[in-house]
Amino acid sequence: QVQLVESGGGLVQAGGSLRLSCAASGRTFSTMGWFRQAPGKDRKFVAAISDNTYYADFGKGRFTISRDNAKNTVYLQMNNLKPEDTAVYFCAADPRWGSRWYTYEYDYWGQGTQVTVSS
User: Is the CB of residue 7 less than 8 Å from the CB of residue 91?
Assistant: First the structure.
């Protein structure tokens, strides 16, 4: 049974940092990514790691995605957080390689972890 379990969310002040983790079990994935969803908004791409790393424009220079294949875990380091980064962050995984920017390109999803940035 495949599971993706996120952790690391929380409340942080603007300008602060958080590191999200997503531990996968049941199989390994070529591509792993992060999406976020603010209340009343669509789920949006944040970053992905596959044959390369990919970032949404709002995350470039602030967010870094990485993975530990031995632990089957992907991380999202978020620095200089802003109130507009407040959202539920979801981990996603797919067995195929390549850039994957859209929710429909991922077969597996975690339950999400809340990130709240106060001003």
Answer: no
Cα 76 to Cα 36: distance, rounded to the nearest angstrom: 12
103: phi then psi, degrees, rounded to nearest 5: -60, -35
Say if residue 111 is exposed, middle or buried (CB neighbours under 10 Å; 0-12, 13-18, 19+). exposed
Are the CB atoms for 99 and 30 separated by under 8 Å?
no
CB 92 within 8 A of CB 84: no
**Bridging pattern class, strands 113-118 and 10-13:** parallel
**pLDDT tens, residue by residue, 34-86:** 999 999 999 999 999 999 999 999 999 999 999 999 999 999 999 999 999 99
**Which of 91, 84, 88 is closest to 21 using CA atoms?**
91
